[in-house]
Structures are given as C-alpha cells and as structure tokens.
Write a structure and sequence with these properties.
Elements (H helix, E strand, L loop, with lengths): L13 H11 L5 H16 L4 H16 L3 H4 L4 H50 L4 H10 L7 E8 L9 H14 L4 E6 L2 E7 L3 H12 L10 E4 L3 E2 H22 L5 E3 L5 H7 L1 H12 L10 H12 L4 H8 L3 H15 L6 H17 L7
Parallel strand pairs: 4-6
Antiparallel strand pairs: 1-3, 1-4, 1-5, 2-3
Family: Belongs to the CdaR family.
Organism: Streptomyces rapamycinicus
Protein name: DNA-binding PucR family transcriptional regulator
C-alpha cells in the first residue's frame, strides 16, 4: 500500500451528497452508491488501503458537519436530530459502498495474481516457456533458477487443491521454519508439489515429513516422491518428471514408501526402456506359471515376497500369511514349471528380474 495521504479526488461528490441529504433527509440513491463503489475500487487499484480511504471520508464528514444546511439551519432540536439520523445513515451507506468496491478490487487482484502464478507454475513444470523469460518470472515467486533445484510431489488418498487443509498445514509449517526464500509450494493435478534449491535439501525432507504426517485430524500422503537435483529451469522439469515417474512406479509396484527417492528407482526405467525385450523375458521365464492351479498370481506373489524378505523363508511366509511348508511347496512348483531354481544365485536373479518386469507390465492381468 502507498504511504502518505490519499488524494482528495477520491471523495468524488461526497460533499454535495451530504449537503443534499441534510436538506431533504433522503437516502442515498443507487447511482450515488455505485459511484462510491467505483471510487473504492479505484482507490484499491491505486494502492490505497481501506483504512486510509475510510479515514479520508470520516475526516471530510467531520469537516462538513457543522456547515451542512440541514444542521446549521434546523429550526429545532428535533429537526437537528432528524437531520443527524439521516446524515449518519448516509455516511454508513457510503462507507459500506466504499468497502464493497475496495474489496471487489482486492478480490480481482488476488484472482489475477493467482492466474499469473498458476500460468508460471504450468510453464515451470512443463517447460513451455522461453527459459530466460521463465527465470525472470521466477524471481517474482522467490526462485532463482540459475541454481540447481529438486522437486518433491506428494499424493494422497484424495486430490489436493490450494485450499485443502493439508496443503495449508504443510505451507504454514514450511514458512514458519524456512520462510519463503527459494522454495515454491503449489498444487498440480490433485498433488502437492514443492520446488526447492538443492542447497536447501532439508526443505524437501521437511516437506516429506509434514506431507506424510500433517498432524492429528489430517490424512497424510500415501507417497512422497523426491526427484533428483538438476540445474536451471529445465532441471525443474526433469526433477518433476522423475518424481511423477516414481509415483507411477509406487502405484504399479505397490512400493512400501511413503517416501520415495527417484535416484533409488533408476533401475526401473532401464528395465522398461526395451519393452519388447522385457515382455519376452516375462513370457519366456514366467509364462509356464499360468498352467499352475490358481494361475500365475500366487506364485508370482511368492517370488516377490521372498525377494523382499531376503529369501528368509520364515519371514516370507509371515508376509504371505501362509505356512513355511506351503511356501516351500510354491518355490518347488516355480522351479518345476519354469526350470529356474530360486536357490541358485544367477537363476534367482533371472526370476526376480522377470517378476519385477511382470509387475511393471501388469502381467498376468494385462496380456503381453
């Protein structure tokens, strides 16, 4: 807001209105109220606060009061009282109209600012703008894109938007702890996104913590994926895409989470880079499992559980909620049907790779 007094031209014909009201006792007319709303809107657009505007009008009211015709020439105390009531009603209506116009301009400015911010975020995360221009715009929102940045993305059981209580909670915690310098918090496609400079990696760790556990009464994120650090404006896009890729893998592979680091999941894009080769591996190695009673699903689940348990049969059986004897039977069936022995290190690696590829490709639910 501007410093100093607000110019008198924002009073419009306020003196004439009061003079007429004092002489007739009438209410303010609709065109007069509309004019006052417009004056309030113009004052807001010029950078003047509502307090200053009201102060200007109240000061003008005090200055004029004693010289108004209805007050100065009233024949009796009762007439003065009636005039005072009419004037106070007019002042009240005028202040309300000014406030409505001022508030309307403020809301419009907020919406415009939100639109500009949203456009910037879209350009930043999708790389749809000239990088030099994007870097200039980024400074307005507290980011210096010449530095390296990383992006974290949180996904909950329900979509996040800018007014979601979890978003507000995380925002308050981050600002209270780190301020607003070189960090950007926003929502995109129902997810909560945090962009932070690589030198402020602690911010992303805190973001993951708050998103996972925003506090009592709030439902935390299922997963928080953190992309790797990359330099420049294009680096933000890369890190964001890595985080989204990690979330997609978490969904498809049912990864435990809740915090996932894209750098720890680099093997999966490698596996999927040649989809045809991966499909051939799954079909060749695991295809025979479909002839088992109950289908390939239970045996594929057994391979996954054994790998996760480090091939400790008791732990794998506990995770599968079956007996160790049943687990041993399943492993023997896998060996018999596929020809690959889970007890042999090299053959176990082939089975594990094929099992991981099956999960990435959605097999056996999805045909290869």
């Amino acid at each position: 807001m501007k410093r100093g007094g607000i110019p008198g031209h924002f009073l419009g014909d306020y003196a004439g209105m009061l003079a007429d009201v004092s002489g007739t006792g009438r209410l303010l007319r609709r065109p007069e109220l509309d004019a006052l709303r417009e004056l309030g809107e113009r004052a807001a657009e010029a950078g003047y606060g509502l307090r200053e505007l009201i102060g200007l009008y109240l000061g003008e009211t005090r200055r004029l009061w004693g010289s108004l015709p209805g007050v100065a020439r009233a024949p009796s105390a009762a007439a003065v009282a009636r005039t005072d009531d009419a004037l106070l009603g007019a002042v009240d209506a005028a202040i309300s109209a000014l406030g409505e116009g001022h508030e309307r301009a403020q809301h419009l400015a907020v919406r415009q600012e939100e639109a500009v911010r949203r456009e910037f975020i879209d350009d930043l995360l999708y790389g749809r703008s000239d990088l030099g221009r994007l870097a200039e715009r980024a400074e307005r929102f507290g980011l210096r894109l010449a530095r390296s940045h990383a992006v974290a993305v949180a996904e909950g059981d329900e979509p996040y938007d800018d007014v979601h209580p979890v978003v507000r909670r995380v925002e308050r915690e981050l600002i209270a702890r780190f301020g607003e310098h070189d960090v950007l918090l926003t929502t995109k496609d129902g997810r909560l996104v945090c962009v932070a400079a690589s030198s402020e990696r602690v911010i992303l760790d805190a973001f993951a913590k708050y998103a996972e556990w925003p506090g009592t009464g709030y439902s935390g994120a299922r997963w928080v994926a953190i992309g790797r650090e990359h330099p420049g404006a294009g680096g933000v896009v890369l890190s964001y895409e890595e985080a989204l890729g990690a979330l997609e893998l978490a969904e498809r592979l049912e990864l435990p989470g809740p915090v996932l680091h894209a750098g720890d999941l680099l093997v999966f894009p490698v596996l999927l880079r040649d989809r045809a080769a991966m499909s051939d591996l799954v079909r060749t190695v695991l295809g025979p499992l479909t002839t088992s009673r109950g289908g390939a699903g239970p045996l594929l689940e057994t391979l996954t559980a054994c790998a996760a348990a480090g091939y400790v049969n008791a732990e794998a059986a506990r995770r599968l909620k079956i007996s160790v004897r049943t687990l041993s039977y399943r492993l023997e069936r896998i060996k018999t049907l596929t020809g690959y022995d889970p007890g042999d290190a090299l053959q176990r690696f082939t089975l594990e790779t094929a099992a991981m590829g099956a999960r990435l490709l959605g097999w056996p639910a999805e045909p290869l």
